[in-house]
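Worked example (supplementary).
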Amino acid sequence: MYSTTARLPYGQKVQFSGQNVSTQADNSSALYLVATPIGNLGDISSRALDVLQSVNVVAAEDTRHSRHLLQHFAINTRLIAYHEHNEEQQTPVLLKMLAEGESIALVSDAGTPLVSDPGYRLVSAALERGVRVIPIPGACAAIAALSASGLPTDRFVFEGFLPAKQGARVRHLDSLKDEQRTLVFYESCHRIVLSLKDMVSVFGSERQAVLARELTKTFETIRKYSLGELADWVEQDSNQQKGEIVLLVEGAETSNEGDAMLLAKLLPALVKELPVKQAAKIASQVTGVNKNKLYKQALKLKSNSK
Ligand code: SAM
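After joint prediction of all chains, the assembly is encoded as:
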């Protein structure tokens, strides 16, 4: 038998008692997934503060880092570590606390937990055991960057971090080269130049791309160029190789087989009769394929025919 007091959001307290069951959560407990700021502390929500204040425990990726955040808001809730290296051992510990009626808030170092951050294992196990899982939405670097990118937002693919090794990175990029949705990547400042170069070699230099760096912070930078221009700019300006970065790349052009076949016949025929620029313009109008891309193809065709 146990008897405990569960602390619930908004200061409400519930007293309960019963058998200690390790597989089924007490129905007053909950696992809150609390988004925290990605830079500017003003971005924390009042609901997030209420939850962080009211739960029994805050499970944090880095307890020192999160202690500073809690202290800033005068919150003294107990912190325990939950990160990629202790996820396996800590998951049963947290599940037991939930089963005993405690409420837990999971936070990561910044932004939305589970987005390129630990927590999947815990959330999955909590749901299996009937624990209430409650998201407290807020900042997420990928979504903030996408919204300010000027790239299509109706459909997008979140790719997280690319492989650190070049061979694996290029293979992964290659698997994405026909993806038509906007691509969203997280990238380390140490690899940004190399990754941009690999992207140019796989996707070509013409697609639009956006660097979203240090979002919500003092040196926030959001720049949109062609992929080739962006790669050159970042390589030449070492300031762009600092801080936290989201990289977005325009998806591949819509191509259907009919258009591709038409283009294969149309462009060579136009190049024979017209100047390269005019041939590319007409082929672009007919097929909807990017004019600059067709101009380059037309130039090649012209020089091959000489
Ligand atoms: N869970 C976080 C979220 O919701 O955005 C992401 C965590 S992931 C471990 C950290 C990466 O997110 C960074 O390497 C960077 O790519 C991106 N990121 C986080 N904060 C950022 C910021 N203020 N500006 C740009 N990118 C940021």
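Two points are worth noting when inspecting this output. The chain has three domains: 3-139, 142-249, 257-304. Residues 192 and 241 are 7 Å apart (CA to CA).
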